[in-house]
Design a protein that fits this description.
One of its GO terms (molecular function) is diguanylate cyclase activity. By secondary structure, this protein is an alpha+beta fold. About 45% of the residues lie in helices and about 20% in strands. The chain has helices at about 1-20, 40-45, 50-55, 60, 70-80, 140-160, 170-185, 200-205, 210-225, 250-265, 295-310; strands at about 25-30, 35-40, 85, 115-120, 125-135, 190-195, 230-235, 240-245, 270, 275, 280-285, 315-320. α8 packs antiparallel against α9 (about 210-225) and α9 (about 210-225) crosses α10.
Length: about 325
């Protein structure tokens, strides 16, 4: 009977060893001194280190570049508490710099990994070893990252004017409403500029809409180069553009407007065999506590724009209450 039981235990052990070696998960068993007691085929295949080389070595010896301080904190917690610990690829992309199965088509040269650290208890019910499981989650990680990238691009496209790559009218108006509410609460100084291209209809009628589009793109390029990272440049419609400047008084907005106006005036726009030159007229309105809405704020800037046009174009006017 004892022989039969011993044979059964040996068979069970044999099957268990085979399973540990063939499972598509990295398995490493570490003792309290950090020595490797088990190194399965997954780890052999991806690291290039054979089991005989790894056994009784430490990870620090085999992989000097690992985040050993971070890993040791994880191991210490498992040994002390006797509870599992985890790390996902979103927290740390990988522990081991293993090559991906599909480095060319999989979207990542290196493997993304989830980790589980399981306590292994001895006969005294105390944690004497830790089993480190390394899961290859590259496919799921790449899919999620690609989805996030696609969603971010869709969000960008939903708020971007296709011709100019400036904010479109809908999104820019949302920014204006938010800035209006913020300025109301804080009492800060903010300004907005609205401008359009002088005699733009003549450009379209004389040279065609393709030439007109090139002019609009060049104006947008100058607007982007003039705006700061904290500003909100937008295309309001047709040849009309807007620039929202948070925390900027009228004097600062005037400097920005004049810089853009002079830069465009000096610019020669090339389209096919044409060399075009255009100017812009600009209106500025700064936030005032008596404003009742963001729309009224914009209307004041629009009134200043018409003052600039009526005064002869190619100039900037401030709204005067």
């Amino acid at each position: 009977m004892t022989l039969i039981q011993d044979e059964k235990e040996l068979n069970d052990l044999h099957w268990m060893v085979q399973m540990l070696q063939t499972v598509d998960v990295g398995l490493i068993v570490l003792d309290q001194e950090g020595r490797i007691l088990l190194w399965n085929s997954f780890m052999e295949n991806h690291s290039g280190i054979r089991s005989k080389q790894a056994l009784n070595q430490t990870l620090k010896t085999l992989f000097p570049k690992l985040p050993h301080a971070w890993l040791q904190r994880k191991l210490d917690a498992v040994f002390k508490l006797g509870s599992p610990a985890y790390s996902t690829w979103e927290q740390r992309p990988r522990l081991f710099d293993f090559k991906s199965y599909r480095p060319l088509t999989g979207g990542s040269e290196l493997m993304y990994q989830n980790l589980t650290l399981m306590p292994l208890q001895g006969r005294n019910n105390k944690t004497s070893q830790v089993c480190l499981l390394v899961y290859d989650v590259t496919e799921n990680a790449i899919s999620k990252l690609q989805l996030e990238t696609a969603n971010a691009e869709l969000a960008r496209l939903s708020r971007t004017d296709r011709l100019t790559e400036l904010f479109n009218r809908g999104y820019w108006e949302e920014c204006l409403n938010q800035e209006f509410l913020r300025a109301q609460r804080s009492g800060g100084e903010s300004s907005l500029i609205i401008f359009d291209i002088d005699h733009f209809k003549k450009v379209n009628d004389t040279h065609g809409h393709q030439a007109g589009d090139e002019v609009i793109r060049e104006v947008a390029k100058i607007l982007r180069s003039t705006a700061r990272e904290t500003d909100f440049p937008g295309r309001y419609g047709g040849e009309e553009f807007v620039l929202l400047l948070p925390d900027t008084p009228a004097s600062g907005a005037l400097e920005v407007a004049e810089r853009a106006r002079k830069k465009l005036e000096a610019t020669r726009i090339h389209y096919e065999d044409l060399v075009l030159q255009v100017t812009i007229s600009l209106g500025i309105s700064s936030f005032s506590p008596d404003l009742v809405s963001a729309q009224q704020w914009l209307e004041r800037a629009d009134q200043a724009l018409y003052q600039a046009k009526n005064a002869g174009r190619n100039q900037t006017c401030l709204w005067q209450g």
